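Open question from group meeting: does this chain pack into something compact, or does most of it stay loose? Before anyone orders reagents, we agreed to write out a predicted structure and look at it together. Recording both the input and the output here so the notebook holds the full record.
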Amino acid sequence: MKKKIIGLFVCMMLIATVIPVVTSVKNSVFNSTVPNTQQTSMAVNWTEMQKLLASDGTTNDFFGISVSIDGDTALIGAHNDSGKGAAYVFTRTGTIWTQQARLLASDGAANDQFGYSVSLSGDTALIGAPTDDPVGSYSGSAYVFTRTGITWTQQAKLYDWNGAAYDFFGFSVSLFDANNAIIGEPFHEVNGHIAAGAAYVFFRTGTTWNYDSLFASDGAANDFFGYSVSLSGDTALIGAPNADNFKGWAYVFTRVGVFWEQQQKLTASIGAPNDQFGWSVSLSGETALIGAAGDDDNGDTSGAAYVFTRTGTTWVQQQKLTASDAAPENLFGDSVSISGDTALIGAIEYDGFKGSAYVFSRTGATWAQQAKLLVSDGAVGDQFGGSVSISGDTALIGAPWDDDVGAKSGSAYVFTKSENQPPETPIITGPSKGKINVATDYNFTTSDPDDDDVYYFIDWGDGTNSSWIGSYPSGDVVTQSHTWTKKGTYTIKAKAKDSNGAESDWKTLSVTMPYSYNLTFMQFMVKLLERFPNVFPILRQLLTY
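Structure tokens returned:
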């Protein structure tokens, strides 16, 4: 019996010790599986800086129905404040915005809707009151305020001297500088065409404001020419969103000497009925941004916006913009604003009227979405994105149905652009030696300078990787296990990426897997020694070791 046991043991030892030679493997960083993302050392980050509320805000004010920003000054309309309307001025000191003034019309009356539209340029503010009654019910007006020091004073009241009831003069306003303004009157009757619409360019000489009337060359009833307006230098952009069976048009006028002439009618290259191209417009130099909130390329009223550029005297469509997550009934393009190579576009119905806004940037002749803006305390029905304005690296976005200080009291949010810093190179900790076919734990950690959440990509050096995992809070230790199945030396590599897409450098750790077990044989030997405890004392010591 003893001879049989010894013979069986010798055979098993021979089998166990015939271990195939395994070539040691060292994986180069450049030969490993790399995630299919572009390395980003610096990314653009738009951050919510502050929520603005009226100092005396209350129910149904609709603070944020209109917004305009210029440098360190913001102007926000609340067209139902006290039933008459008001506008609020905020100024920035450092990174903090504080209310500087509450502007009221000197002759304000109930239902004037003063603040329904606003525009700001330096120390001058233009505020529309489209249901004021200067020449008839709801004929409309607009008010000019100027600032001296920190004091704002009403300078003038503007209206269409030849206007009529229900013209809604002041429905849209745009101020280029202290001396030039354009005001829309979308329900004005032209040559018997009801609501064909008109726009008026005002220019100031001394303290007197004079104006010229602008009409579409082919205006028709219910075009709503003047529904949206924008002024930049000697160029005016005017939307007519109901023209041509609600397909919509936009018109460019230029000033030649002291007269204004229609330069071109703009139409969407693939426009369709009910797109309402021209619902919103914004002009910056030789570039025009035009919203088509009813566009249905991505579902009914998903919305779109179009960029046109001018060369000489000719305007050409440069690109059609849509949201990266476009969906039906978002109304992307309900509001637009452009400053240089940056465009800001509101989508008022996003996510059950919570609303959203999108930033696009231009490189060369190509526009790409740079950021999607959501607010930290957004709620259904807030209509964030109902009004937008951008100035340099600062965006101002209204949420007129927000209810912080009462139902539909309204609010506005300030976002600023910053260069997003990538996470630090990860730290990898764990054993440098291990056993094949045994899971080994390794810890990964990094910190993000902007305190953004982070993701990790881990290459285990044996042809496998984790893909991007996360997100995890900055500074948290993340533990991951891995099992190698062959003897060798492997290079673990890890990199981190923050929530804005900025990636760190790679970090590496070399590990060796020198030990190998035949588990079936070991289990057999343990049972054998348990049955014959006094046999093979030397082998018992080895196995114990």
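Observations to bring back to the group:
The domain at 23-37+422-515 is CATH 2.60.40.10 (Immunoglobulin-like).
The longest strand covers residues 488-498.
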